From TrEMBL:
Keywords tagged on the record: Transferase
Protein name: DUF4111 domain-containing protein
Organism annotation: Ornithinibacillus hominis
Keyword Transferase: yes
Pfam families noted in UniProt: AadA_C
MF-aspect GO terms: transferase activity
InterPro entries associated with the record: AadA_C
Occurrences of domain Adenylyltransferase AadA C-terminal (ranges): 85-169
Length: 188
């Protein structure tokens, strides 16, 4: 493989891709984005052929930051707004679904926070550990809750599901606002 890139004329082509333990042929796979290219360029492992660091494609930190911030302000902000408007429905969900939502949201946003600050990508648990060193103490309980869920620890730190959901929503809004201010400050 000498070059690895996609021209805009290739965006509508069908090709093979592997996802969810299944080899498929079809439309453009949604997960080719700056995070994918960053991971390949900076963390790719050579099995056969040239080192991924030598591939002829360019991914700059600003492309990664721009993509992550856009995702945070679109997907995550909308998800949090929906959760905030339907908190009673969320509380009525089974505990395992609430656990999933807390883990997905808290650790997912912390991964983005890490990427915006460090220009790198880490696991959910590593993002949680990082958050505990960077985020104000008032949010540590929901970060620890999300990490416990990820680790399979069933005992909750909170007294009720409502309290966990409320703290997740408030933390998410805080972190999105914090990240936007952080990026804005870096631009000035």
């Amino acid at each position: 493989m000498g070059k690895l890139y996609t021209n805009s004329s290739d965006f509508n082509r069908k090709y093979h891709f592997y996802n969810s333990e299944k080899l498929s042929f079809g439309d453009f796979y949604f997960n080719f984005n700056p995070v994918t290219w960053w991971m390949l360029k900076n963390n790719g492992i050579n099995i056969l052929g040239p080192d991924p660091k030598d591939f002829e494609f360019d991914i700059q930190p600003q492309q990664l930051v721009s993509y992550v911030l856009k995702n945070m302000n679109a997907y995550w902000a909308n998800r949090i707004k929906t959760a905030e408007n339907s908190i009673n429905d969320l509380v009525a969900m089974p505990t395992n679904q609430i656990d999933y939502e807390i883990e997905w949201t808290v650790l997912g946003l912390l991964r983005q926070f890490f990427t915006l600050k460090e220009y790198d990508i880490v696991s959910k648990l590593d993002a949680g550990e990082y958050g505990l060193t960077q985020i104000p103490y008032e949010w540590h309980s929901i970060i620890e809750e999300a990490m416990n869920i990820r680790k399979g620890i069933k005992a909750s730190i909170f007294r009720s599901d409502w309290e966990r959901i409320d703290k997740t929503i408030r933390f998410s809004k805080y972190l999105i606002t914090h990240c936007n201010k952080m990026i804005e400050k870096n631009l000035t």
